[in-house]
Amino acid sequence: MDFQLSSFYPVLIFLVATVGFALTTLALAHLIGPRRHTKIKDMPYESGMDPIGNARQKFDVKFYLIAILFIVFDVELLFLYPWAVSAYEARFGADGKPLMFGVLGEPIFWELMAFLATLIVAFIYAWRRGVFRWR
Fold first, then answer.
1. Which of 74, 58, 54, 56 is nearest to 66 (CA)?
2. Cα dihedral across residues 56, 57, 61, 66: positive or negative
3. pTM (2 d.p.)
4. Could you report the per-residue pLDDT of 40-78, keeping only the tens digit for each?
5. 3-state secondary structure of 103
6. 100 pLDDT more than 70
7. Residue-range domain boundaries for the chain
């Protein structure tokens, strides 16, 4: 193999730029940062709201249940994206006749329908159990 140092110049330039940016950011934060520490300046920023109470308070289990359901349904929708992109790329077969179910064919279409049915059943089950109702 023939390695030349000139082929690594873009990587070296990228590394120098990255380290330079990090060091510049740290230096500017130190130079521009607050000099006098007051109670208000040292208070944590909580999305524009004054922090009230202890940060170690307990969360309701309902919060975690909603978060987990969001992740589950979000990931399941990610499984639909590749199918949606490739399902109808080619509309015609080799014989020139139009394909009813696109490139993937009929078996994969029905597998997707079974997947969506399972997703809908899970959603209806969670809805009936009152998971989406906030107290």
1. 74
2. negative
3. 0.46
4. 777 777 666 666 777 677 777 777 888 888 888 888 888
5. coil
6. no
7. 61-128
Within 8 A by CB and 6+ apart from 76, the residues are 115, 119
Tokens of residue 107, six digits: 């078996």
CA-to-CA separations, 59 to 44, 69, 124, 130, in angstroms, rounded: 20, 16, 25, 18
Q: Are 90 and 99 in contact (CB under 8 A)?
A: yes
| Residue 104 burial class via C-beta count within 10 angstroms: exposed 0-12, middle 13-18, buried 19 and up | middle
Separation between Cα atoms, residue 122 and residue 130, nearest integer Å: 13
Nearest to 109 by CA among 80, 130, 72: 80
Q: Tell me, what's the pLDDT at 90?
A: 55
Residue 107, amino acid: P
Tell me the residue type at 70: F
